Amino acid sequence: MSQPILVVAECKGSSIRRVTFEAIAVAQKLLQQRAGAVHCFLAGPGEGAELQQAARELLTYGASEVHLASSSEQTESNALASLKPLQSLVQQLQPQFVIAGHTAYGRELAPRLAASLASGYIADATAVELLDDGFAFTRPLYAGKAFETRSFTGAAPHIVTIRPNNHETAAPLEAVAAANESAINTLPASASPLRSIVREVVSRVSSGIDLTEADIIVAGGRGVRGSEGFQLLQQLADQLGGAVGASRAACDAGYCDYSLQIGQTGKVVTPQLYIACGISGAIQHLAGMSQSRTIIAINKDPEAPIFSIADYGIVGDLFEIVPLLTDELKKLGRQA
Amino acid sequence: MKIVVLLKQTFDTEEKIDIADGRIEEYGVKFVINPYDEFALEEALRLKEANDAEVIAITAGPERSSIALRTALALGVDQAILVSETEQLDHSYHIAALLAETIRPLKPDLILAGLFAIDSGSGSVALQVAELLDLPHASAAVKLQLGTADELALEQAPWNGQLALVERDVEGDSEIVLLPLPALITAQQGLNEPRYPSLPGIMKAKKKAIIERFPADLLNEPLQASIASSATVRTAITPPPARQTGRLLQGSSEQQTKELLHILQQLNLVESEES
């Protein structure tokens, strides 16, 4: 049993996404004590000096080999362009598991890969457990209103995506500080026909922090009353180094973009800190954020359901509290 | 032009989840068309109105799923197909294989589906259908245009014929993707504003037939072998961990803010003054 485990790595800009380090740690856990190695697949555009740099970094985090796929069609988010080279690599390596992040990229790539290989697929795992006779993966249902545990019963390779922010991250190994260049392979260019092209990418996320990976989220609901109110939340988020989210009510009312929506429709988030401002706490919203580590609720209505899941509550006016907190944080920043 | 829309019937988003005897209680639950599939359905209906397309709605599931199809008929789809299945509904490859084999003889130009279903939340079935039918896909569409390169005002395109120009949501950023038809496209929130069925629509839908398909007729031996090799099994289902009752901060806004700041510092989420 020396089947390797393959991690589908992902970069954002020139840096490796944190979920990739989580996936490496999950892979190391799945290997247990048995012999076997963690390999990484990394796809990126063009000639790729940055890709080489990222590959060297992956080696220092415990990957024994990194396989690079680069093509002009490959962008950060073009899963279709990664599919064929990844498929070939999986057929060559015969890994026991393929692990990717449950990100925009991973959640497109993994099911297609699974279907092409007739492999089992468990999506969006929040926990991985070792059993005497295998592995169990916990994942949310109904956006977190319930959790199920699943196991693979079919043949390897098994495909898993993991939810960002829910797993330990791998630590860099000092011993391999001088990365072994021969452990970086470039996969042959795919001869498959062109399936789609990305014509343009328009960056709209002001802070550049993805909601599902954010450590801190400041979210607003109907009580924020408009896009001006959301600017107050943005200022607080900027001070905290976090991202802004919203409830469906706020999105439906046009206060902000749908891409910010958190809930059963929208994104499910599990940050270290969730500050809910003017959010009453509809069931469908709670499903998307109730697994956050610490929840702070600010709402005028003491009966709002959000208080039932908040660790700390303030019954008060968010238009007073949010700017006050922003100012306090600014003062702190100046002292530091 | 022929458009297939994939639908799944799900719990309403305002439903609580009760677990009894290791399964989710369905009794008394309000079922709806998965909200993301509603965007797909609405887009298909708009394309039908603009281009004289034929729209076929397909779902795989138990008998109750026919209610979702009835709604789709009331909204204006031309044909509704129920793949009757009560087993392995949470096995995505199994459901994808049933849908793909139902779609294959229809030879649609476009398949529309929701980004994910709000119950299982994997977002896998539609993309697996695309893979099994060897079609390109674009996911999380917030805007969709169809036409030739000329009609889409593109100077050049690597393909002839009908194309889809898709604006898609990628973790908050947007991306413009071009792909040739036939293709599968999944709908993200914001693609459109779904309509409600009209009373005449509902009355007419009652008279329309729902076509039934059966797994035994759709799955050949190789597919059955693939379904077995891709199986996963649920071993437990639990409610989310309960949260401890929190604490309300007291005093004036200033005092509450100071205490909040102190809490953030204790949690190491904000630098302490001493450091």
From TrEMBL, chain A:
Belongs to the ETF alpha-subunit/FixB family. This is Electron transfer flavoprotein subunit alpha. FAD binds at residues 222, 247-248, 261-265, 278-285, 299. One of its GO terms (biological process) is fatty acid beta-oxidation using acyl-CoA dehydrogenase. Residues 5-196 form the Electron transfer flavoprotein alpha/beta-subunit N-terminal domain. It comes from Paenibacillus montaniterrae. The gene is etfA. InterPro entries: DHS-like_NAD/FAD-binding_dom, ETF_a/b_N, ETF_a/FixB, ETF_alpha_N, ETF_asu_C, ETF_asu_C_CS, Rossmann-like_a/b/a_fold. It holds the Pfam family ETF. Binds 1 FAD per dimer. PANTHER family: ELECTRON TRANSFER FLAVOPROTEIN ALPHA, ELECTRON TRANSFER FLAVOPROTEIN SUBUNIT ALPHA, MITOCHONDRIAL. Signal peptide: none annotated. The keyword Transport applies. One of its GO terms (molecular function) is electron transfer activity. Its cofactor is FAD.
UniProtKB/TrEMBL annotation, chain B:
Its cofactor is AMP. Residues 21-218 form the Electron transfer flavoprotein alpha/beta-subunit N-terminal domain. GO terms for cellular component: cytosol. One of its GO terms (molecular function) is electron transfer activity. The keyword Chloroplast does not apply. The keyword Electron transport applies. InterPro entries: ET-Flavoprotein_bsu_CS, ETF_a/b_N, ETF_b, ETF_beta_N, Rossmann-like_a/b/a_fold. It comes from the Bacteria. It holds the Pfam family ETF. SUPFAM superfamilies: Adenine nucleotide alpha hydrolases-like. Keywords: Electron transport, Transport. Heterodimer of an alpha and a beta subunit. The electron transfer flavoprotein serves as a specific electron acceptor for other dehydrogenases. It transfers the electrons to the main respiratory chain via ETF-ubiquinone oxidoreductase (ETF dehydrogenase). Belongs to the ETF beta-subunit/FixA family. This is Electron transfer flavoprotein subunit beta. It comes from Paenibacillus montaniterrae. The lineage of its organism: Bacteria, Bacillati, Bacillota, Bacilli, Bacillales.
